[in-house]
Automatic annotation (TrEMBL):
One Pfam short name: VCPO_2nd
Keywords of the record: Signal
Top-level lineage group: Bacteria
CDD domains noted in UniProt: PAP2_haloperoxidase (cd03398)
A GO molecular-function annotation: peroxidase activity
Boundaries of every Vanadium-dependent haloperoxidase NapH1-like second helical-bundle domain copy: 306-471
Species of origin: Nonomuraea dietziae
UniProt-listed Gene3D superfamilies: Phosphatidic acid phosphatase type 2/haloperoxidase (1.20.144.10), Vanadium-containing Chloroperoxidase, domain 2 (1.10.606.10)
DUF6851 domain mapped to chain residues: 65-199
Extent of the signal sequence: 1-24
UniProt name for this protein: Phosphatidic acid phosphatase type 2/haloperoxidase domain-containing protein
Length: 477
């Protein structure tokens, strides 16, 4: 869940038969149960994500790499499961298949992966190893060797997976936008093609004027867990084109929706924002999974498999949604609304009436719209994929989560919204995923089709990722 700025006081509770309740502080505190090494490494990686600058698809991949390394190390100590890269070649004899050996192998694997992905955060990863009783500088003993061998095979594969991690994730396709940047403060910015994506120029939280480029336009070419992410994305219907009734209708819907925002809808928009300094949407669902682990009393084996399936589903969701974004290069609402309504008086959030040329989404002004194309919504795709895996893993849709949005904690309208504490509740994973998608329309950064098509894509991605994960841990590979 996002932990950002003045919203750090948020607390999430799980309402279940065991009445697990998180205290008001620290934010997102978990139930007082023993946390296995899978949970500890998930938490360590999310901490690195919050401190880092990687965007959602890279974060999704990082989670998948760490949890795949953990899974492959664990598989060597299981009687049936096979690893994703080395199959059953690392399998240890039955006498060695103790929980202690599994935990050690997992930790050395996760540490190697985490340092590879977030080298600047190595001190924190080393500290966790020490706390767990392992020496990161001296990987002696069979479990350590097994974990390192399993993870190195994953890293060798992922270093050549098309992400360009070793090149700082820089674009490899030569993408260039057809529209010149819009200066958000300038209502007179021109648009060459109102169907296509436009970069934005604005002041970030440091007060620096920035024009972020399209984030990772090459990401659709990253090797997916299932091998099917790109095909699923290519089946997504195209967005509405300028000059059509559908284009005008989607703009009208966004103007109307954002003009009618209530405190609750504003809270939903901000809660799910998952922007800079947060866990991002993929990490948000990893936090939900931690609650599921506590709620259902998971042990090490259950968590290895759950996070393996979940993380790879959100990685594939990122690949699929970015493939669609790059293929369609579609316009964001801020460009479309300003282009269609320049010189016209339109209603907007906060009860105001403005010139359409000055319209802005319900977002913090230091991050008015994420820097990549609209269609499809990444939030919708990530969330639907994650919800599908959690439904299948738990055997049902019941969730029982909630979060409290504190009075006046808005980053868009500080001290004003919400006027009172707002409690968001999700009885099911589906309800949470649907609200995540809807939140992007409340926030004014996605159109209806981008949300709904993203949900459909994510569900399909989650279904095939689940089947692939099951094949690995059932020994079918």
């Amino acid at each position: 869940m996002p932990v950002r700025g003045s919203l750090r006081a948020l607390a999430l509770v799980l309402v279940s038969a065991t009445a697990l309740v998180a205290p008001a502080a620290p934010a997102h505190a978990v139930a007082p149960v023993e946390r296995n090494v899978v949970l500890r490494w998930n938490e360590a990686l999310l901490s690195a994500v919050r401190s880092g600058t990687l965007g959602p698809p890279m974060v999704a991949r990082a989670l998948a790499v760490v949890h795949t390394c953990a899974y492959d190390a664990w598989a060597a100590y299981d009687a049936v499961a096979v690893g994703t890269r080395l199959g059953g070649s690392l399998r240890r004899p039955e006498a060695e298949r103790t929980e202690a050996n599994r935990a050690e192998a997992i930790s050395y694997a996760a540490h190697l992966a985490a340092v590879d992905l977030y080298p600047a955060q190595r001190a924190g990863f080393d500290a966790l190893m020490t706390e767990l009783g392992y020496d990161p500088a001296a990987p002696t003993g069979q479990p350590a060797r097994t974990g390192l061998a399993a993870c190195q095979a994953v890293l060798d594969h992922r270093h050549g997976d098309g992400s360009n991690q070793l090149g700082g994730y820089a674009d490899t396709t030569g993408y260039a936008p057809v529209n010149a940047p819009m200066v958000v403060a300038d209502p007179l910015t021109s648009v060459a093609d109102p169907s296509r994506w436009q970069p934005l120029t604005y002041r970030n939280r440091a007060g620096v004027l920035v024009t972020p480029p399209f984030l990772a336009p090459h990401w659709g070419g990253v090797a997916s867990f299932t091998g099917r992410a790109r095909d699923l994305a290519d089946a997504v219907p195209a967005p509405a084109a300028y000059g059509t009734h559908a284009y005008r209708a989607q703009v009208a819907e966004i103007v109307s929706l954002t003009a009618g925002l209530t405190d609750r809808r504003k809270a939903i928009a901000e809660y799910w924002a998952d922007g800079p300094s947060s866990e991002t949407p993929p990490g948000h669902w990893s936090l939900f999974a931690q609650r599921v682990s506590a709620r259902d009393g998971h042990g090490l084996d259950e968590d290895v498999k759950m996070f393996f399936a979940l993380a790879n589903s959100v990685m594939d969701a990122g690949i699929a949604s970015w493939e669609a974004k790059r293929d369609h290069d579609s316009v964001r609402p801020i460009t479309a609304v300003r282009f269609l309504h320049r010189g016209r008086q339109i209603p907007t959030w906060g009860g105001r009436v403005i010139d359409g040329a000055t319209w802005t989404p319900y977002q913090a002004p230091t991050f008015p719209t994420p820097p990549f194309a609209e269609h499809v919504s990444g939030h919708s795709t990530f969330s639907a994929a994650a919800a599908e895996v959690l439904r299948r893993f738990t055997g049902g849709d019941a969730f029982g989560g909630e979060a409290v949005i504190a009075k006046g904690s808005s980053l868009v309208e500080p001290g004003v919204s919400p006027a009172h504490d707002v409690t968001l509740r999700w009885s099911t994973f589906t309800e949470a995923a649907d609200q995540a998608g809807l939140s992007r329309r409340y926030g004014g950064i996605h159109f209806l089709a981008g949300d709904l098509q993203g949900r459909a894509l994510g569900k399909a991605v989650g279904a095939v990722a689940w089947e692939r994960a099951q094949a690995y841990w059932s020994g079918r590979g």
